[in-house]
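Lab manual, section 2.4: Encoding a predicted structure.

Procedure: take the sequence of the chain (93 residues), apply the prediction step described in section 2.3, and record the output as structure tokens. A sample record is shown.
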Amino acid sequence: MACSGMGQSNRSWALVVWVMLNGPPDQLPEWFFPSGNCDTDEPLAHGHPDVLYELNDLVQHALSETGWPLPEVRVGFESDERARTRGGWEYFK
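Recorded output:
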């Protein structure tokens, strides 16, 4: 899991946490943030919506347990290989 830092969302600050996924990039989601709508998320999640929703919940819960001060935490999912070949950290700017 990697944290890309803070981002502006809906006029309030949010923490964006990136979960880097291992495997063939063409079989993994690209810049996927769970929306809560399974119908639209299913194709974007490349057949992995249940696992990605579970990971999202784990990250949200873990930060909540620590008393994270920001009201919004966004969890994104991306292929590790895709990010590395497209510039690493620069890919997320």
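Check your result against the sample. Residues 49-65 form the longest helix (17 residues).
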